[in-house]
Amino acid sequence: MSPIKAFLFDLDGVIVDTATYHYQAWKRLANELGFDISEEFNERLKGVSRMESLDIILAHGGLTVSDEQKAELAEQKNQWYLDLVGRMTSEDILPGVATFFSQVRKANLLTALGSVSKNAPLILERIGMSQAFDAIIDGTKISKGKPDPEVFLKGAAELEVSPAECVVFEDAVAGVEAGKRGGMFVVGIGSPDVLTQADLVAPSLDGLTVDEVLAATVA
């Protein structure tokens, strides 16, 4: 019998893929600052907070700006990103997510969102999944980004379960590390060559079953 009581999900790359919108907005910002970033470079920004991402981009462009300018640049990027996200619909939910969530509900498991994005509630609203979660922990509720486990520990606390009773679903290396540091079983969504710290890895939620995940936690 699995002791698991809750599933905690990252948003980006697990439920939806807004990485492309982040990339378009960051690329536009870089271009306006006089340089470019590639999709390959953008991989370094996955699971990283907005200000940290900006620091990485400015370093890449060899630019040093004041804290005030940084705040303005981050806000500009976010506005461009929100313009793109505002056009999202339920069509943007990744394949297999709806089926997996119906299995989660049938198994009477609790659910929480654990995202560093401050825009997570807006995205959930746009795709019609706000009601799919018993708790929503986003960037407005945490002070430390991943790989710090704060976002997942807060999710467990809101659900009133222990970390050992949680499974985390993550697509980013920093997120997998956060889940492991929080003492949780982690399902990596992506490549086993990249998500080496995960306890179980699947290419996506499509085709993955709740029974399979629960069986792995007691294996």
Commentary on this structure:
The protein is an alpha/beta fold. It has two domains: 6-17 and 91-218, HAD superfamily/HAD-like (Rossmann fold, 3-Layer(aba) Sandwich); 19-85, Putative phosphatase, domain 2 (DNA polymerase, domain 1), CATH 1.10.150. Helices cover 43% and strands 11% of the residues. The protein has helices spanning 19-32, 39-42, 50-60, 67-85, 97-106, 120-127, 150-159, 173-181, 210-218, and strands at 6-9, 110-114, 135-137, 166-170, 185-189, 200-202. A six-stranded parallel sheet has the order 3-2-1-4-5-6, with helices on both faces. The protein is globular, with a radius of gyration of 17 Å. GO terms for molecular function: beta-phosphoglucomutase activity. Keywords: Carbohydrate metabolism, Isomerase, Magnesium, Metal-binding, Phosphoprotein. Belongs to the HAD-like hydrolase superfamily. CbbY/CbbZ/Gph/YieH family.
